[in-house]
Amino acid sequence: MNYVLLSNPFKKGLQIVLILLLGIAVLGNSTAYAAGLCVHPTGAGRCFTSIQAAVDAANSGERIIIRPGRYVEQVTILGKDLTLLGRTGVVVQAPAQMQDTLSLVAGVEGRPIILTAEANVTIRDLVIDGANSAENNPFLFGIVYINADGVISNNFVKNVGFGTPTLPIIDEQPSYQGEGMLVVNFGATPRTVTIERNMIVNYNSSGITIFAQGLPEDPTLGSLTAHVLDNTVVGSGKNEILGQWGIFYGAYENAQITGTLKGNRIRDLLTVNLFPSPGVGMATRLTTNVEISNNLFENVNMGLTASGWYTQVLENRFRKSDTGILLFAEDPDFGSAIGAMLDGNQFEHVAMDMMTGPGGMFGAAAKSAAAEESIQPKRLPR
Fold first, then answer.
1. Measuring CA to CA, which residue among 13, 21, 61, 14 is closest to residue 37?
2. Which of 169, 185, 249, 361 keeps 20 to 30 A from 382, CA to CA?
3. Which residues contact 380 (CB under 8 A, 6 or more apart)?
4. Cα-based distances in Å from 248 to 131, 189, 227, 285, 351
């Protein structure tokens, strides 16, 4: 859920690697396809038999039509502006043994089913199936955008985890794994991403994670505009293993994140006795001029936690929850919901409608994570 990409040699080394990779990708592409490309499991109609083969052959700006079938593969898009458009019946499934493709573009371990970096990519109308393969595929992700623009629309992301809620322990620390979608910008180019009308179910850790990451010495990095609209995120319900999150949306180290979180439906995020941490419908951190409106939170321990400048929390509905809204106030790590405007929110069978104050265990957890000297992405321990 929330991550801190801690910097040191990470930034400069990553930029050099990424430039080299993109150069190789461009040099390797010499075939022109004026009418776009297609993919079919059998190659019918002169289509490619794998999505990755079509991506490799495509020129920037092209559209790839994916015809019905099951494609057991990882797809990596580097430096090409593409549209992946699925027809009804398309399933992109995680292989039994996946490659760590995230390290190449972010310097941290990860196995995305679809990875986009340094490009403007639309992904539409696909079923993304993790096949509950996280045991064999550590740090499993559904869709990942790194330093990229684009649209993620009308996809069904499922089974990105272990099958049942699981919290692996690595080096005596909990390791939160199994993410439906991850969008991150830590580059100098401002990025805009729209995530709309997707459904994420049967994930392990968080449904949608979005954050911007800067550096203390360079506030120009990590500008991100993200619109999260009309998605459905469904957790695993009651469990005693881990606190699942629906959506995390935030900024670290002087980065700026702004946009809208509107019309989303988030439910069934319940940790029994709040152990080891509560299930959270939506969490925001140090946002700027963000609108959070018309969302539905149901059967969650905590509906919404918010901090940032001039947040609007409007006409959201909270049902069957322990706490509806937590607004951070003067928290040393999470900041404060300065100038927040609340209006028209509805609470039904909620034990406590709203709380304000320091983040408590959330703030302490953030401070602990930020103090670690590592370039690995860290889920804030809670």
1. 61
2. 185
3. 1, 2, 3, 4, 362, 365, 366, 368, 369
4. 24, 22, 13, 8, 23
- Among left, alpha and beta (phi > 0; psi -120 to 50; other), residue 228 is beta
Question: Which residue(s) pair with 331 in the sheet?
Answer: 335
Q: Are 326 and 336 in contact (CB under 8 A)?
A: no
Q: Where are the domains of the chain?
A: 3-377
CB-based contacts of 213: which residues, under 8 Å, 6+ apart?
Answer: 4, 5, 7, 184, 185, 186, 221, 222, 251, 252, 253, 255
**Residue for token digits 């001029």?**
289
Please determine, for residue 122, whether its predicted confidence score (pLDDT) is greater than 50: yes
CA dist 31 → 54, 58, 60, 122, 270 (Å): 11, 7, 11, 21, 51
- Over residues 52-95, the pLDDT tens digits come to 999 999 999 999 999 999 999 999 999 999 999 999 999 999 99
CA 57 to chain centre: 28
Question: What is the Cα–Cα distance from 282 to 339, expressed in whole angstroms?
Answer: 19
- 172 SS3 class: coil
> How far is residue 221's CA from residue 144's CA, in Å, rounded to a whole number?
19
Q: What does the pLDDT average to over 214-223?
A: 82
Region 3-377: CATH code:
2.160.20
| Spatial distance between the Cα atoms of 231 and 35, rounded to a whole number of angstroms | 32
Q: What global pTM score does this model have?
A: 0.86
Backbone angles phi, psi at 144, to 5 degrees: -130, 130
Task: Concatenate the DSSP letters of all residues of 271-284 into one string.
Answer: EGGG-SS--EEEEE
Tokens of 248: 């995390």
